[in-house]
Give the backbone structure.
Amino acid sequence: MLGYNITKWPPDPSHRHPTMTSQTASVISRFLPSTHDHSRCIETALERAAAICDLRRLRLTPIRRRVLELIWRSHAPIGAYAILGQLTRDGHKAMPPTVYRALEFLSSASLVHRLDSLNAYIGCGDPSEVHNGQFFICHKCESVAEIHDTATTGLFARQADTLGFHIEGSHIEISGLCSRCEKKESLSG
């Protein structure tokens, strides 16, 4: 148990778990500023994906690449049927299994993450190594920030070991308000 009073968030920093330091956590992707250059970001993500697939000897087919591009296009989580709709508008004769196979490939290659609470996908900000992400999801605008905290991952691994439980995959989704939406609410409220 982390010792946080979960009715009070964020927790009081003086009551931090001793192993949870800023040195164990890395921010993989932040909530984006309004000045973010999407076109450069998409280009970088696609270049990185191609390099990772080449390195791992995986095939980034045109449909997989297009699905990845659609996921990165807005930085907002996107569902499989929204991707299918966009592919159809693009002139692809894609069917749901095509999209789901592409998403399965992208997930297994660590190029995207599935957000279970939204039944949607988001691009991984650091696909160079496999990690268990922790996601902060704004329930107002659905923007997402991703971190990787090795202390949290280690904590769950130790607890699973204590319980005799084998973790097959884990990520944490935390719902709340991003600073932009919180500011809008405080101004309107």
In short: The CA atoms of residues 137 and 144 lie 5 Å apart.
